[in-house]
Amino acid sequence: MKKSRPYARRPRASAPKNEISVPEVLTLLGTGAMNVQELVPWSSNYTFLVSISSGAQQVLAIYKPSRGERPLWDFPSGTLAKREYAAYLVSAALGWPNVPPTVLRDGPQGIGAVQLFVDTVEGEHYFTLRDAYREEMKRIAVFDAVINNTDRKGGHVMLGKDGTIWCIDHGVTFHEHPKLRTVIWDFTQEAIPVPILNHLRVLQSKLGRPDPFVQSLAPLLSAREIDALCQRIQDLATRGVFPEPPEDWPHIPWPPI
User: Fold this and answer.
1) Which residues, at least 6 apart from 196, have a Cβ–Cβ distance to it below 8 Å?
2) Does the pLDDT of residue 247 top 60, yes or no?
3) For residue 154, what is the DSSP state?
4) What mean pLDDT value characterizes the chain?
5) Domain ranges of the chain
6) How distant, in Å, are the alpha carbons of 99, 118, 136, 223 from that of 95?
7) Radius of gyration of the chain (CA)
8) Dihedral sign from CA coordinates of 30, 35, 40, 44
9) Mean per-residue pLDDT for 96-112?
10) In terms of DSSP bridges, do strands 48-54 and 57-65 run parallel, antiparallel, or are they unpaired?
11) Residue-wise over 147-180: b if at least 16 C-beta within 10 A, else e?
12) What DSSP designation does 218 have?
């Protein structure tokens, strides 16, 4: 998803004044009544700003229907919404980084990923934030290596108005072959912090046995993609250092923001 700026009209904050819990947000996103507000004009795929409501609760969200996905030569057609949801599940299992609550559900344009809209500070992105939020950027860098993110642009890292660093746009992820493409190469060959490694090992243990987390990924990714995910986590946990840019792959996305 693109950065939450120039809508034709600026949407109001995405969450109600009285905070609701993440499980409540996920339930609302998954079961609430959806109404399309407008088409997001700068997205490479068909993407809609929607309102989702149930009773007195209402939020804004970004809806990416599978049928609106632009075909890609290296990803199976109609799978980006599933990958977007799988990326959220991995972030939730790790406990980082901050990916807005995301579900996979039916909508006016069919099945798609639905992600909570986050109101962000205008003009802030990875390149303006990286010096002040280095530890958070390290978590995002490891996360991208885990999910094999092939499109981490600077504008996909945002500062929420609540001071939270958020990362979005995880549709082109989880390919079975190495395709890491990102602007975050600041930590190449540095040691991965121990708390991050510990979380990776916990996730690795879940993937190595029958677990509800593994079952949640099975409808979203192919068996080979899940095997590759397990291998990437094992490699990161074993080597204990941030990855190097690949020599045989364009490792920085364009445009970088």
Assistant:
1) 96, 138, 139, 142
2) yes
3) G
4) 92
5) 22-239
6) 10, 18, 12, 24
7) 17
8) positive
9) 98
10) antiparallel
11) bbbbbbbbbbbbbbeeeebbbbbbbbbbbbeebb
12) T
